[in-house]
Amino acid sequence: METLQFEAVKVALKQDKTGYILTLNVHPDEIPVDLMRDFVGARYQVVMVRLNGEDKPMNRDHEYARDPVRVAGILCRDDRFAEWLFDQGLVLDTAEASVIEWLKERLHIKSRTELKDRPAAVKELFAIEQEYKQWTNA
C-alpha cells in the first residue's frame, strides 16, 4: 500500500446533506502527482496530524488540557468526580447539575465561562482537580 504525504492548510469546512466538506489548500510543490491523477470521487483513508508553531505534531491533549473552562466542564461531567464530592459530603447527590452548582459556589462564579477572567478561581479549580486526581490514584 502506497501512502500520499503532503502538508495542507484548512481553508473551509461546510456541511451538506451527505456530510462535511473539508477544503484544504495544498502548495503546488506539495501535492502528490497520484492525487492529481485520481478521479473525482475516489475514496481515501485520511490520517492528519496538526502541526504546532514549530512544524512539529501537536499533542491536542496537552494543548487544551489547561483551558480552565474545558477542565471545569470535564470535571462536572465526570461521574467519578461527582462520586468523590458525594463521598466527602460536598454535594447531596451525584447529578451533574449538583456538581456544577457546587463548583460555581466554591469558585465564587456565576458561570464557568467566568474562569477566562478570574485567575484566583482558576488556581482554585486546578487545586480541586489535583486533589481529585490524587484521590483517583490512591
Describe it for me?
It is a single chain. By secondary structure, the protein is mainly alpha-helical. The chain has two domains: 9-48, no CATH class; 62-137, no CATH class. Helices cover 44% and strands 11% of the residues. The protein contains six helices and two strands; from the N terminus they run ββαααααα. Strands 1-2 form a two-stranded antiparallel ribbon. The model has no long low-confidence stretch (mean pLDDT 90).
The total beta strand count reads 2
**Tally of DSSP helical segments:** 6
Beta-strand residue fraction: 5-15%
Largest sheet: 2 strands, antiparallel
Secondary-structure blueprint:
Blueprint: E1 9-16, E2 19-25, H1 33-37, H2 60-65, H3 68-77, H4 79-87, H5 96-107, H6 119-137
Antiparallel strand pairs: 1-2
Helix pairs in contact: 3-5, 3-6
Describe the structure concisely:
The protein contains six helices and two strands, in the order ββαααααα.
List keywords for this structure.
mainly alpha, 44% helix, two-stranded antiparallel sheet, 138 residues
